[in-house]
Amino acid sequence: MDPRTNLSLDRAAVSRRLLLQGAGGAFALAAMGLARTAAAEEAKPAAAEQPKSEGTPLKGRIKQSVSRWCFSKIKDDDFYPALVKIGLKGVDLVGPNQFETLKKYGLVATMVNAGGIAKGFNRKENHEALIAGLQKAIEAAAANGYPNVICFSGNREGMADDVGAANCVEGLKKIAPFAEEKKVTICLELLNKNNHKDYMADNTMWAVDVCKKVGSPRLKLLYDIYHMAIMGDKPEEVIPKVIDYIGHFHTGGVPGRNEIDETQTLNYTAIMKVIAATKYDGWVAHEFLPKKDPLTSLAQAVRICDV
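RESULT FIELD:
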């Protein structure tokens, strides 16, 4: 079964279908004076842009976690110790049934499951059930000291975006005070229209406007870098402008949602530097589907994002 048990089957179908599918060398410095040394150093590739070797301690400016479902073929007893060794501190998109296992390995649930993608807050008839589900998820997260729970806009199904936004605001205003009381952040996820063809929250500014109108410090966005880059965002430019409304990040290579290395188009080292410069103190969770050895790719992703 899909580890993201509480998420709708539309996302699972797309993602599972996809699933079935050292620093540069040092320059030799000749003893020919400071001028030649300086010239050699100027030509040397910037060390910060190169993935660090496995033995190098992490800086930790970016708090990193990983979405469990992307590595679902690896058993817990193999996966979680590997995360600790890699230097990861948390796991995304898990439910209360997994909390004790995470605690065994000293890991945090960085995003707790709640609700589903297709039936979201853009329809008033969904509000009662969604609020009840979010309340349970928030209580579970708060009881264990976990920071975030997820929510979704829902699919359009012919609804105008402004109507859907108003309905989202109405519903989320009802649960926001409870999240504030429990000190847990509700994160509205942004998704692209290619993988989720009818999903309403496929535009960053649409979702930012919902957050503004709800007006709660405990409603923010789950900004999935992969999804929003597919939708045309330039992450290095957009993120600083909306960082006050972002509560969580996901990574993924563009265009294939695979490794975030040089095989894809986004420069994640540069993106993480932009995020770090904003003083963002939330989590960045890796949510890519590895084509190579999964744990090797994950370790590389952690090093790429450790800026």
